[in-house]
Amino acid sequence: MLHDITKEESLSSQLQTIAKSDIMNDTVLDKSPNIYHSITAYLYAKDILNIENNDVLNAIRYHTTGRKNMSMLEKIIFTADTVSYDRTYNDAKRLRELSFNDIDGCMHIITRFIISDLINKAAVIDINTIDCYNNVLPLKGLK
Ligand SMILES: [Fe+2]
Description:
Elements: H1 11-20, H2 27-30, H3 33-48, H4 54-61, H5 72-83, H6 92-101, H7 103-120, H8 127-135
Helix pairs in contact: 1-3, 3-4, 4-5, 5-6, 5-7, 6-7, 7-8
Bound molecules: fe (ii) ion (FE2).
Fe (ii) ion (FE2) is lined by residues 3-4, 7, 37-38, 63-64, 81.
């Protein structure tokens, strides 16, 4: 319910929110507007809604990038964002089914796609996505 709560805010407004926080706005984040809303939604949940559950806060914060050593809640929110029933891309059904049987393998495919897509666009890659990719190994034989 909260992971995209700030997604409709303008990017400049979200950057201002990030700048006022203690989250470092490095060159990677600055050049990754698709990530802004996960940070600002995290800040909204923490500072406005006073949510103190770190698992919930981290699930919101890392739902776009992933990270290493994610909790099961974080993995579910990260994966659900890509395989939800409203997704209609070619592999959506296969990934949706895989997510129920091998969430790490599913996340490996998702992060592989994200990283490949960013490379093809000559875009920056958040280090958390690389860490996530390296941290979720597919089951033997998964492609
Ligand atoms: Fe999102």
